[in-house]
Each structure stands twice: as structure tokens, then as C-alpha cells.
Amino acid sequence: MGSMGLAIVDGARCKPRPGLKGACPACGRTAIARCGDLNRWHWAHAGRRHCDPWYENEGPWHREWKQRFPLDMHEIVHFDHVRGEKHVADIRRPDGLVIELQNSPMDIEEMESRERFYGEKMIWIVNAERFKSQIHLFDALPDPDADFVADLVFFPPHPLWVRNRASTEKGDGSGLMFYRRSETPPGSSMVAPHMGREVIDLVRRHYVGHHPCLWKKPREVWLRSTRLTFLDFGSDEMWVVRRYGPEKLFCLQRASKQALISSILDGKAPVVASSDVSFLDSEALKKRIFR
Description:
This protein is of the alpha+beta class. Helix content is 17%, strand content 29%. It has helices at residues 60-66, 108-118, 159-163, 200-205, 220-224, 257-265, 282-288; strands at residues 3-4, 7-9, 12-14, 21-23, 30-34, 42-45, 74-80, 85-92, 98-102, 122-127, 135-137, 152-154, 177-180, 194-195, 210-215, 228-232, 237-244, 249-256.
């Protein structure tokens, strides 16, 4: 049977306590408080499965994230009266922003269904600890909105770069390669490659956290998502899935976990690049990114 963190008891949302019986907030079926000595306390939903097919049984990662937000934002039933659907959002702010916490693998069809259901006011927070060893981040990219970047096209990382890390982990953009649009005749497939050391100073001045990336055996669902997707590697920093420039180069952008949480609690737009995202020097890059 499905497990929940909250149930309705005497008309109020309630955490489990010994001896309590309640009702599922979504369907109204019986929920029984399970408060043993070995397993964490939880509500057991009547029946073999939770009434919401999108619902994940809570684990330590879910609970750790939910504890960062007030109880009245937890497990909120979201209604779509046009479609006649209702689902339980992991976290929903009073203004309607939905934060979906995803721990287990999910197929593309379900991801797209959830994004249609919740609309544009949602973000994903994904437990990426299980597959972080498959993600290889490389040298710093400049802010994609900086004026000079419009003339530059960065080459995507090559798998051989993973083996030759020493040449790509400088942290100042010198390990990158690019060509200039202004030097390339229209329709030509011939380009003149440039090394990243030509733009080191510009990268340093215009760094907002972007890094090109190779993802071995990628979770395609997160490459296809159209909502902000934050990958949680289990540290104080998070990484946002991004597409860089007109060529849609796959990259990740550094984000502060605390800045994200604070922006949600303050009722603001979720913060991606906080003002304190500082440039990573070579040693910091090795410690924070390359594993």
C-alpha cells in the first residue's frame, strides 16, 4: 500500500501519530498511521497502491527536501476541473508554483503529462546522486546572453576529453574550442577553429555558471523536459539542465541550493544563477565538478 506524509484528521492536515486514522487528501479513502520502532512514521493508504499514479512513496531524500518548506505547502491536491483530473503536488506555493521532487526513474510520457497538468508554473528537483558519476562537466562557458557570445559557436565536448581531463579542467574557458560566425561564409561547412584561451578574460568577466557536459547513458526524460530542472548531486550546489545558444549545446548551470530554497520561500521566481555565483578557479573546479 502507498505511504504518505500527511492525511486529513478531523478536517485538518496531520502528520502520523500512534493510533490515528485519517483520510487521503486526494480520494478520501482510509489512511492508517504506521508508527513503528524500526520504520519511519507514515500514513498507509488503503489499497495496494496510492490513488494518484504519479505519487512516489517517500524516502529520506523526499523528506529532507520537504522539511525545508512549511507544512501547509506539502502534498497539496491540485485540481484541473476542465480535464476532470486531480493529482498531489509534492510542494505547492500559495501562488500556485509547483515543485515536483523526483527520486525514481520516470518515462517521458509521464513527464509530459505532468508538465501539461501543472502548466508553466512548475519546476523539477531531481535526485541525481545515482547517476552523477555518468555526468562529465567541462570548462567554463561565458554568459550566453553576453553580446560577444552571439558571434561564437562552441564545439560540444568529445568523449576523448573525458580521458584527457588535464586539458579541459582549467576552469577559465581555455579548454574550450569554438569558431566565429563572422568568419564563416553563409552555407559553408568549413569553419576556422579557435582555442578557448583567446577568450579567457571574457569568460572570467561573464561567467554565470554554465559548463558544457557529456552524459553517458543520459536520462532522456530530463533532456526533453520543458520546465526548469534542478539536478541535486547531494551538495550545497545544484545543476540546472540547459541548452546553450542557437545550436542548443547541452550544458549544466551551477545554482545555489540555499538561494533556490530562499527564493521559493520568499514567493519569488526560482533563482537559478544567484548573484554570488563566483568564477571557479582550477582547484575549485576539480573539487566541485570533476569526480
